Backbone:
């Protein structure tokens, strides 16, 4: 996997699962008259795997990158980009689609 695999700070940076909509509903409903919940997946068109990694460097990857020694960052990003490439097929025009799931909740009293 890479020299970062045994780093406890990198393991700790992994995102926990987001609670299911049912969990949010059960938490909010006792305090609200109405709870509306919907889940949407947006597809963001990007130039390729490298563009996906650049997009994620500003958010999702930050906890991982900050946990690494500076000399490991380039190797980590190269390995990560290779994994992204395996999971995102190029479309007819060479672009890739990055799925961005979003959970929306409106709770009113």
Residues:
């Amino acid at each position: 996997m890479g020299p970062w695999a045994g780093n406890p700070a990198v393991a700790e940076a992994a995102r926990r699962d987001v609670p299911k909509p049912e969990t949010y509903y059960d938490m909010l409903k006792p305090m609200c008259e109405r709870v509306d919940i919907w889940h949407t997946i947006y597809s963001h068109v990007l130039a390729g795997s490298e563009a996906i990694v650049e997009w994620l460097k500003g958010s999702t990857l930050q906890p991982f990158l900050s946990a690494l020694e500076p000399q490991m960052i380039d190797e980590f990003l190269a390995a990560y980009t290779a994994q992204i490439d395996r999971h995102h097929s190029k479309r007819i025009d060479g672009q890739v689609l990055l799925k961005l799931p979003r959970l929306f909740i409106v709770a009113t009293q």
Observations:
- The two ends are 49 Å apart (CA to CA).
